[in-house]
Amino acid sequence: MALHMIKLVVGADTIEDLLDWRRAHTEPGKPWVLRTRQTPKRAAEMIDGGSVYRVFKGQILCRQRILAVDTVGEGPNARCEVSLDEEVVRVVPTPRRAFQGWRYLEAKDAPEDLNSEAFGDIPPELARQLREVGAW
C-alpha cells in the first residue's frame, strides 16, 4: 500500500498561484522538485505509488505523484529532494491544521481525487463555503 506525504504550501493561496509560481521560477523542461531538510525514512514506500498532498490555507486541495526521493549533500548540508510528476491532481478539499515541515499520510486517510465532471471547475472559495454549510 502506498504511503503519501503531506506538506503545507507557503506563499500561494490557490493551486493556480502555485502553478503560476512554478512557471515564473522554473526553466521549461526542468523536473518539479520539492526540497526539504529531512529525508523520509520510509521513502521506498512513498515511491511505490505515493503522492505529495498539498495544504493551502487549511485545506488539502491537490496532490502530485512522487517519482523519486533523493538525499543530496552530506553531513549538515544534506537535504532531501522529492521529484514530482508534473500533473497536479485536484482532490476533494479536506480540512487540515497547520504543521511544520512535512508528515506521512496513510493511504486510508488521503482524500479522494476530485471528480471534475460532477462539480465542474468550482472556484476554491465557493467550494469552501459549500462545505461549511454541508452542501458538499
TrEMBL record:
Species: Phenylobacterium soli
UniProt-recorded name of the protein: DUF1489 domain-containing protein
UniProt-listed InterPro entries: UCP032025 (IPR008320)
Superkingdom field: Bacteria
